């Protein structure tokens, strides 16, 4: 009987924080990492090319630059990390105390796993005004009293693993992920993860479709993902794909029927406003254009399903 592969000791890790959205919550993310019982050895903040280092952040951070692509920023951080493990953290969450320890334990239990992902439902750092706006626009909200989130793209408060084995494990939102670098390829990380990924930043897993299924979506979405040749390092291609997927993703979070359709449409209005604001802030309309294109395709798909008597899932 063969023994299990050796498990790395994981006495240190590097935290990598991509900042594609240039969100104002980065300082809270950094503070939550530094206050961990098991803090990172180094924090690498990856900024979009052409953007200066943010002001008012804690000292002792390492700033690097990468193309305006979430995938490119993640890969850049992985390339520069000097530790066997890397914690990828979105810049809009507050990492709960003990989360890195929990992820470390999960990986120790599954030596063949590529990554452990914590879906931190209660952790998005949303100001009160943003909470109210999201609620009114049908995009969900963060409840500061109960530590829960109803953001449409959030997952469940559990730890999930993406293995290299054949079974499929869903990770609903990779907002806080510990990767074992020895089992991943730093270059084109998105094409090497076995399993499947879905969530708001779907560019992280869209190209892994050959390893699994990406959510239950209209068949038209599968056509978008049939050709994973869109390089993760191409920010515009990734942004357009992101926009396409978001438009389908919204529909699948609503129940069918008149009320569900109205709620779905209202949430699209909210998502459009969010993307318009993001486009103004980043001076890049690629994701907005992709969203509008995807929305048109989604409406056509729903109309076709309705004519054929099929009820969307």
Could you explain how this protein is built, in words?
This protein is an alpha/beta fold and 313 residues long. It has 2 domains: 13-125 and 161-224, Spore Coat Polysaccharide Biosynthesis Protein SpsA, Chain A (Alpha-Beta Complex), CATH 3.90.550.10; 235-308. The chain is 35% helix and 15% strand. α6 packs parallel to α8. The radius of gyration is 19 Å and the shape is globular. The termini are far apart.
Rounded average pLDDT: 65
DSSP helix count? 8
CATH A-level architecture of the largest domain: Alpha-Beta Complex
**Which overall shape is indicated by the principal axes computed on the Cα atoms?**
globular
Summarize the model shown:
Mean pLDDT is 65; it is low at 1-7, 146-158, 165-172, 190-232 and 252-256. This protein has 313 residues and is α/β, with parallel strands linked by helices. Helices cover 35% and strands 15% of the residues.
Question: Main attributes?
Answer:
2 domains, 313 residues, alpha/beta, single chain, 35% helix, two-stranded antiparallel sheet, Spore Coat Polysaccharide Biosynthesis Protein SpsA, Chain A
């Amino acid at each position: 009987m063969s023994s299990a592969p050796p498990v790395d000791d994981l006495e240190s890790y590097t935290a990598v924080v991509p900042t594609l959205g240039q969100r104002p919550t980065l300082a809270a993310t950094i503070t939550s990492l530094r206050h961990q019982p098991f803090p990172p050895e180094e924090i690498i903040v990856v900024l979009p090319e052409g953007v200066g280092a943010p002001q008012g952040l804690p000292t002792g951070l390492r700033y690097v630059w990468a193309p305006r692509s979430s995938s490119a920023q993640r890969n850049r951080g992985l390339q520069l990390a000097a530790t066997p493990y890397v914690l990828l953290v979105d810049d809009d969450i507050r990492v709960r105390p003990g989360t890195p320890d929990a992820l470390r334990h999960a990986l120790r239990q599954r030596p063949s796993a590529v990554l452990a992902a914590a879906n931190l439902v209660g952790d998005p750092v949303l100001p009160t005004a943003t909470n109210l706006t999201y609620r009114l626009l049908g995009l969900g909200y963060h409840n500061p009293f109960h530590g829960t989130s109803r953001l449409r793209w959030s997952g469940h408060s559990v730890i999930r693993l993406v293995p290299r084995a054949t079974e499929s494990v869903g990770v609903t939102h990779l907002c806080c992920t510990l990767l074992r670098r020895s089992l991943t390829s730093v270059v084109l990380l998105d094409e090497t993860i076995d399993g499947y990924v879905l969530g708001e930043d779907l560019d992280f897993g869209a190209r892994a479709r050959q390893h699994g299924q990406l959510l239950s979506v209209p068949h038209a979405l599968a056509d978008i993902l049939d050709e994973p040749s869109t390089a993760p390092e191409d920010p515009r291609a990734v942004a357009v794909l992101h926009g396409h997927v978001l438009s389908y993703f919204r529909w699948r979070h609503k129940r069918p029927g008149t009320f569900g359709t109205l709620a779905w449409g209202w949430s699209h209005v909210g998502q459009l406003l969010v993307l318009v604001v993001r486009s103004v802030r980043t001076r890049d309309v690629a994701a907005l254009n992709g969203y509008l294109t995807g929305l048109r395709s989604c409406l056509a798909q729903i109309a076709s399903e309705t004519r054929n008597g099929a009820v969307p899932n």
